[in-house]
Amino acid sequence: MVEEVDASSASLFGLGDVPNGVVAMVWPLTSICLALLARQLLIIHPVFPCTSLLLILGIGLGLASGFTGLSALGDSTRMWAAIAPELVLYLFLPPLVFSDGLFTNTHYFRRESGLCILLAGPGVVVGCFLVAGFAIAALPDAAPDWKLGAALGAIVSATDPAAVLALLKEVGAEPKLSTVVSGESLLNDGSSVVLFKVAVFLAAGGSPTAEDVLAFLALEVLASPLVGLAF
Length: 231
Known about the structure:
Elements: H1 20-24, H2 26-44, H3 50-64, H4 71-81, H5 85-103, H6 106-111, H7 113-120, H8 122-138, H9 146-157, H10 162-171, H11 175-203, H12 210-230
Helix pairs in contact: 2-3, 7-8, 7-11, 8-9, 9-11, 10-11
């Protein structure tokens, strides 16, 4: 049976008790409505890029969720903020990667594949350790050593290019540039996952042997592409 939330959580609707499943839908539906409204407003009055307006609306939505008069929105926001990380990884990431791959210009991707691999491989590693160095210097409590700093760097080094691609499309950038950004994002997730797993393993006190390293690389670097090609 679905649990019931407190009556105050339904103040946004003016109803009594409502199921948690209904409250959970408040935040995504509100976000979708605001995004559609922003899109229509910018079609009529194109003042600045849609992504900038969405950022402002997102910040406003986050602040509004704390108001007592919008308790249902706040409860819904907290539900999504507490979502299991594994659910995000396995439920939301594959469709995003598939969508990027489906709409990537294969002609430009083949031509620029070397640059994409360079950015998604060594580029992610360099970005990871740059973030680690900054975190150690600026946030010593959160990243007291290179191991935890590298874990943080691996998390933030694989950025999602959705906002960047939307902006490039709005300003009429060359398809080649958009393809490089999109192609790099398709490949950088694997690099960041490998870096993150290694950093967390070392931070936990692990001391891998040469056999462990070879087995890990064989599984993550060689087996994963074979599974992708098989399907």
